[in-house]
Amino acid sequence: MEIEYLKENWESSNAALERGSQSRKNIDPRQKTTLQRLASRYRRMAIVSAVSLCWVMPLYFRLSEENPDTPLFYPLVMVAFFLIAAGMDYWLCRGIQSIDCATMSVETVLKKVYFYRKRHIQFIFILMPIALLIVYLMLAMFNFEKYALLGAACGFMVGLAFGLKILFDFMRDYKQVLN
What we know:
The chain is mainly alpha-helical. The chain has helices spanning about 1-25, 35-65, 75-95, 105-140, 145-179. The protein has one domain.
């Protein structure tokens, strides 16, 4: 009776292994894990921030032609913002890349994911006042004219929509890792 039971279990486990090997053949090796997707999102954001540095000084020189009183402080704040954002995103990218699910315990992986998620949100709260200062300085450069205010309001709405979409994408990936 016991030998019969062992034979049945052995055969069912062989069948399960064969089914598993068949399903592994259907896995696309180019498909990224959620952690890889998070790291590539952070890498892209760091690149966008670094590339954005290229237009700060030409913008300043263009605007200072129209208004020679424009202080150099304005573009320096923008440069600081983009450098800080690029640094933060690069740091988050490297941190997410350092998570190795194969060698780390589940507890360690979860602690690291929670840590980087928390830092992501903290970085948003660090960068937000600088971004608002930049908008204020740009409006001041145009003497808070009606069309400047209207442009800033439209830019705020579009930026908020894109920013929230990107934030929700990040948080969705974090949620997938944590589940």
